[in-house]
Write a structure and sequence with these properties.
By secondary structure, this protein is of the alpha+beta class. It has 9 helices and 9 strands. It has helices spanning about 55-70, 100-110, 115-130, 185-190, 195-210, 220-225, 235-240, 250-270, 280-295; strands at about 10-15, 15-25, 30-35, 40-50, 80-85, 90-95, 100, 145-150, 155.
C-alpha cells in the first residue's frame, strides 16, 4: 500500500514553493495555495494522489498531459505554470485566481437566472472552442469551473483528466459517482475513445442543472419544472444531451451560437409581448380608486 504524502503549511516543496494553505480537494489530488519564491507570486499547487508515483506510465502520461495543457492560451483557461516531482509526489502549479467554483455559486443560489446561465456557458464554450483544437477536457463539471469576481470564468484541470482513466480500479468505490451525471454515454463505455462532443454533453447537463437546480432526469422537462423559462429550452437541452453524439451540437462554437440565439429570441419575445387588455369595468374601477385617493 502506497503511503499518502501530505504537504503541510509552511513546508517548502522542491526548494521553491512554500505551502500557505490547503484550498481544495479533487478527484486527482489536493490543491494548496503556495508562494513561489522564484517569482514572489502566489500560485495554486495541485498534488496528485501518490498512486501515480509508482508507475512509469503514469509519470509519462502526466508529463504529456501537462505539456498539452500548458500549450493552451485562452483567458478562460487557467494557465499551468510548472510541473515537478518532489518527495516521490507528482504535482503541478497553476495561476491562482480568486473566486468561487460554479458548484458553490449554484449552492448559494439554488438555481441561476436564465441570463446568468447563458453568460457563463457561453464563456465556457468559447474557452472550449480554443481548447478543442488541441485536446479534450473530459471532466467538465461545476467543480471545474471557477467564477471570478469580475464575472469572468476559468476552466480548471484542462487536459489532465485523462490521467485518471488508467487508474479507475484503484479509486475508492463511489468516489467518482457524483460526476457520472456529466459524463457522456460513450465516455462511460470507452473513456479513451471519445472526441470533443463528450465535453458538449457535459455542457448540456450543466445547462439543465443550473436552470433547474437539479440533475437531469428522464421525462422531466425544463419548461415544466421552471415555467418562466423561454420557449426552446427543452429542445436545446435535448440536443445538447443527446445520447448519440451525432445528434448533439457538433462544436463548442455551434453550442454557443445556438445558446445566444435562444437568448436573443427570448429577449425579442419579451419586447414584442402585447400589453394586457383592460376591460371597461377594470378601467372604471381604476378611475374610482384614483378619485378616492385624491379625496
Amino acid at each position: 500500500m502506497v503511503q499518502q504524502t501530505t504537504f503541510e503549511t509552511g513546508k517548502t516543496i522542491a526548494g521553491r514553493y512554500v505551502i500557505r494553505d490547503k484550498i481544495g480537494r479533487g478527484g486527482m489530488g489536493s490543491v494548496f495555495l503556495a508562494l513561489d519564491k522564484k517569482t514572489d507570486q502566489l500560485v495554486a499547487l495541485k498534488m496528485l494522489h501518490s498512486k501515480y508515483a509508482g508507475s512509469r506510465h503514469a509519470v509519462a502520461r502526466f508529463v504529456r498531459e501537462v505539456t498539452t495543457a500548458r500549450s493552451l492560451n485562452h483567458p478562460g483557461i487557467v494557465k499551468i505554470l510548472d510541473a515537478c516531482k518532489a518527495d516521490n509526489i507528482l504535482f503541478y502549479t497553476m495561476e491562482y485566481v480568486e473566486g468561487k467554483t460554479l458548484r458553490r455559486w449554484l449552492q448559494a443560489r439554488q438555481r441561476l437566472e436564465f441570463q446568468s446561465v447563458v453568460r457563463v456557458l457561453c464563456l465556457v464554450a468559447d474557452a472550449l472552442s480554443h481548447a478543442h483544437q488541441i485536446t479534450i477536457h473530459r471532466d467538465l463539471s461545476p467543480e471545474n469551473i471557477m467564477v471570478l469576481k469580475d464575472g469572468s470564468i476559468r476552466l480548471l484541470d484542462f487536459g489532465l483528466a485523462k490521467l485518471d482513466d488508467q487508474f479507475k480500479g484503484l479509486t475508492v468505490v463511489g468516489a467518482n459517482l457524483g460526476k457520472l451525471q456529466y459524463m457522456a454515454p460513450e465516455q462511460q463505455a470507452d473513456p479513451a475513445g471519445v472526441d470533443f462532443r463528450a465535453d458538449l454533453y457535459s455542457l448540456g447537463v450543466m445547462f439543465y442543472e443550473l436552470l433547474s437546480g437539479r440533475a437531469p432526469a428522464p421525462g422531466q422537462k425544463l419548461s415544466v419544472m421552471c415555467p418562466g423559462l423561454p420557449p426552446g429550452v427543452d429542445a436545446f437541452a435535448e440536443k445538447a444531451m443527446a445520447p448519440d453524439p451525432d445528434k448533439r451540437f457538433q462544436s463548442a462554437f455551434e453550442f454557443r451560437e445556438a445558446l445566444l440565439a435562444l437568448y436573443r429570441n427570448a429577449q425579442t419575445s419579451v419586447e414584442r409581448k402585447p400589453e394586457p387588455k383592460i376591460s371597461p369595468w377594470q378601467r372604471f374601477r381604476s378611475f374610482v380608486k384614483r378619485l378616492l385617493r385624491r379625496g
